[in-house]
């Protein structure tokens, strides 16, 4: 395991993390992975610590994964519902969070539709923050679990070619993955309609390929991204049907890909749009492995932040 020590109070993105810090998280997740295979799936690591899950957007995998990770580490957990909170009465997010912080909560896991919301709060408050997705900016733990899964399946991240297909423009998952994978030595390709490729994305160290077949023919990993209709105020392509005809990964398309290509998706999956059912449920798909690995990765992040807090408090 890497000898790098974790010293950060928060995990709000991968943009500012070093290769060594990312390696530390992945190594820690590997060591915690076996906890979920025990007859008693619990360790006392975070006993006496309190974690508040504050989700201002809908979530299934991320919210449940964090809550279960907290319970596996024996933390006390508070689940915050934006729909029934004082924010609907006009209270600011900062005041809401400060009130929760005043209850001596140690860590806040936050998902928010405004890009940068966890970052700004983390700078102003003493409580530790974990970004569970902010607007179209970043989703660090999803990228970490994606990298963990790739390393598990391919043995390394160095030199691995990862192609992202879909709505790159609105994808916080793509952004975090780009920051993380390029630092770890992977080759990243993005593919999708020109209207859904961010301007100057090449400056982040990725290659842009608009033709689907060219984008996947040498890929070791294909990571599919959902068309995020809820984040789009404009029409970026004629129709969902046309998008599926051009960019869907199905068995015919995969004939040009490597035989051992790995198919990934952060979820939720729109079957029949970005991927066909036979591919999603086929031997190349590791989508459910991603969900499983997300638990270990989030346990690792909670564990490392808790240790950093102890040092700060001590």
UniProtKB/TrEMBL annotation:
GO terms for biological process: 'de novo' pyrimidine nucleobase biosynthetic process; 'de novo' UMP biosynthetic process; amino acid metabolic process. Carbamoyl phosphate binds at residues 61-62, 111, 139, 142, 267-268. Pathway: Pyrimidine metabolism; UMP biosynthesis via de novo pathway; (S)-dihydroorotate from bicarbonate: step 2/3. Residues 9-152 form the Aspartate/ornithine carbamoyltransferase carbamoyl-P binding domain. The keyword Transferase applies. Residues 158-305 form the Aspartate/ornithine carbamoyltransferase Asp/Orn-binding domain. It is an enzyme of class 2 (transferase). It catalyses: carbamoyl phosphate + L-aspartate = N-carbamoyl-L-aspartate + phosphate + H(+). Keywords: Pyrimidine biosynthesis, Transferase. Catalyzes the condensation of carbamoyl phosphate and aspartate to form carbamoyl aspartate and inorganic phosphate, the committed step in the de novo pyrimidine nucleotide biosynthesis pathway. Belongs to the aspartate/ornithine carbamoyltransferase superfamily. ATCase family. Heterododecamer (2C3:3R2) of six catalytic PyrB chains organized as two trimers (C3), and six regulatory PyrI chains organized as three dimers (R2). This is Aspartate carbamoyltransferase.
